[in-house]
Write a structure and sequence with these properties.
single chain; 279 residues; mainly alpha; 12 helices; 71% helix
Length: 279
């Protein structure tokens, strides 16, 4: 886990350096994301639940995209509208999904563990190490969108935009269906303590994370020839985080302890990239 944290930090640093080299107001989207997640932090304090940040993660990235276009005062060309539409649709769906799942639920075990470790100082430490840190990560993940905003010109949709949109829609649908299947599975009391290993969950142990990574590669492909192509660190960072840091690796540590059958599931099903055919 320490190595994963180091690599994640290095990827994020690479993105920060790239974005800092951009001419113009590339920092304004970061300030906007930090402002939004500061509001999320204020909401988390009376609730004593830092997990509210999960609901704000998608909107923070969408805010970065919109502020980038407005800050650079570029024309709203067809590729710009496409990228904004894709990231906004993703952000809204994810926020609604996580709100339905998290509101009224106990604090996520990751944040609860940090709260215990930090003690009384958690309220302030969480602002920097959870909320502002994720604002910076959102800024880097959205790097292809910022790169596009910094160099966008009047343009029409091209082949790469159509291909990128198709990749995005595949990942978006994959994640959406996976979340719906898991929600239906958990709603059945007979499945308490059981492991979902059918549907998309029979192809990969984390179809929602796989779909999330795919859609970000779609956004990157759609930005390749319109200014965002240099910022490959964005999709690389989110994919690495999902596979090795805050996604698969961290979640599975808890699942192995709470679900006895999960060990068999690990043996029979790929962790991230889905098998081509069901079992």
């Amino acid at each position: 886990m320490k190595n994963a944290a180091l690599i994640t930090a290095l990827l994020a640093l690479a993105g920060v350096i790239q974005l800092a080299l951009l001419e113009g107001p590339s920092w304004q989207p970061l300030v906007a994301a930090a402002g939004l997640l500061t509001i999320a932090w204020l909401i988390s304090l009376p609730l004593k639940n830092a997990g509210v940040i999960d609901i704000f993660w998608g909107p923070a990235i969408a805010l970065v995209a919109w502020v980038s276009v407005l800050a650079y005062e570029r024309p709203f060309s067809a590729p710009t509208w496409l990228l904004l539409a894709l990231v906004t649709a993703w952000a809204l769906r994810l926020a609604i999904h996580l709100a339905r799942r998290n509101i009224g639920a106990p604090e996520d075990f990751r944040y609860a563990a940090f709260r215990r470790q930090a003690g009384r100082g958690f309220w302030l430490r969480s602002l920097v190490t959870i909320f502002w840190l994720q604002a910076a990560l959102a800024w880097v993940v959205a790097a292809p969108l910022i790169g596009h905003a910094a160099s966008a010109s009047e343009a029409s949709l091209g082949l790469l935009q159509y291909v990128g949109a198709a990749i995005f829609l595949f990942g978006f649908a994959f994640e959406w269906v996976a979340d719906a299947q898991l929600r239906a599975f958990k709603a059945d009391p007979d499945n308490q303590g059981e492991v979902l290993d059918s549907g998309l969950w029979g192809l990969t142990r984390h179809p929602n994370y796989f779909g999330e990574a795919v859609l970000w590669w779609g956004i990157y492909v759609a930005s390749l020839d319109i200014g965002g192509g240099l910022f490959i660190v964005g999709p690389v960072l989110i994919t690495w985080m999902l596979m090795r840091f805050s996604g698969v690796a961290m979640l599975e540590d808890g699942l192995k302890e709470t679900k006895p059958k999960y060990a068999d599931y690990v043996e029979s099903t790929p962790a991230f990239f889905p098998r081509l055919l069901p079992r």
